[in-house]
Amino acid sequence: MDAKHIRQLGPKLAAYLREFDDCFGRIEPQRHLRTYVCGQLSNLHRKSIEPIADAAGIKPRDLQHFLALHQWDEDAMSDTIAHIVARDHAHPCSIGLLDETGHPKKGDKTPGVQRQWCGNTGKKDNCVVTVHLGYAAGDFHCLLDAELFLPQSWAEDRQRCDRARIPEQMTHRPKWRIALELLERTVANGVRFEWLTFDEGYGQAPAFLFELDRRGQRYVAEVPCTFTGWLRKPDLLHKNHHRPRGGRPRKVPRLKAKSPSASHVKNLLRHSPILRAIPWESFHVKDTDKGPMVWEAKAAPFHLKSDGLPTRPHWLILARNRLNPDEVKYFVSNAPRSTPLEVLLHVAFTRWRVERCFQDEKDKLGLSHFEVRNYLSLRRHWIITAVSHLFLAKVQQQWRGEKTGTDRLPASSGRVGPGPILVAMGRGERSPSGTHGRDHPASTATQRAGTQMPQTHQTAAAGRNGNRPIEAQMLHSV
Fold first, then answer.
1. Residues 417-468: tens digit of each pLDDT
2. Is the peptide bond before 253 cis (omega within 30 degrees of 0)?
3. pTM for the structure as a whole
4. CA 319 to CA 294: how far, in whole Å?
5. DSSP string covering 62-102, please?
């Protein structure tokens, strides 16, 4: 950044913040918004109310009242963030990112605080947990919306909630239900997600996956090793052949007698002949300070368990660290059967973007620096932090420009969009021999390469071992 860019920041920020003028009925809170955002964008060591107010030469109580008492529409501000992203950063390969983060706190007055798992410290700690929805498209990423996770102990103590000004309609609910609320609110404001990805904390809930299915939302979900399902659909009985003499007839459809029960995905990896017949493929995920990060992966059709019965075919994707084969990740996806493995892995490994958003908002903008004792101030703080972060993301993208290169992620239409995808390494035959070869997802993509996968290009960087970048295509849902 040179002097010319620095001089442009003030006018850019003023023009950007004018987009939020409709959230206020008076000029005073508009000015406080600018003060708060400028404080978050400054080099202050701590970005809570008092340091920001002192740096701006105003009373800390003015900013306290701005968050807790002034009349302005924080929901409209959150909606405006989504409108800006939908207008300026719509992308045919957009990926929604669901995750939570912890904010360590002392005492027991901060809304939602209790001893619970805190990802920030990596242990059970006294903290507040918030659930977030992020957005990644090409080289751009930001956080769109957030909500407080209200523990059961708080929800059962209505007097405590009233003291923290937690709305009466807010109850304890699982984090995946909060995630659905964030998704619904954001989609209603015009943001579209080609894909959604999240960790096993959300993927472990089949009800969440089925609800995304119902909404027509494609996802790649990390799941725990104890997640259950079938690689081969078991036989079902659709009618009762013998009417029982007494009592109610047995439920149909149901699994036929001696049909295999659903298995843990970790046991399928160890023992399934279907998975053993599928070779591992190596993918260069990214370069790190310690060298290239390479993972091996394979995928197969997979039937989830719903009310004891198998669903339509999904994907089971297995990935293991090449340097540490004991580190294995399991993913499930409702993508079309013809979707290439590269695309599924690209979506799954995009989750680092939301961690980067958390890091930027905490280290640079003071996301966790709040010192408030009421829910309204807390919600307004994280919405304003998202406003500040979106400004940084927009300026960074404008001044850096989109990266160029051959490793691009095509859209559903086949048009190549910005953003790196994984690089397949040293590929051999993708289809295992035998009767199960037709069900191997990679073989399906290869067999249809003439119509569904773009041309691959040999490059000088391929090396003597024949490694080459792959441009995999996101395909229309079937």
1. 434 456 666 543 333 333 333 333 333 333 333 323 222 232 233 333 333 3
2. yes
3. 0.81
4. 10
5. HHHHHHHTS-B-HHHHHHHHHHHHHHHS--TT-EEEEEEEE
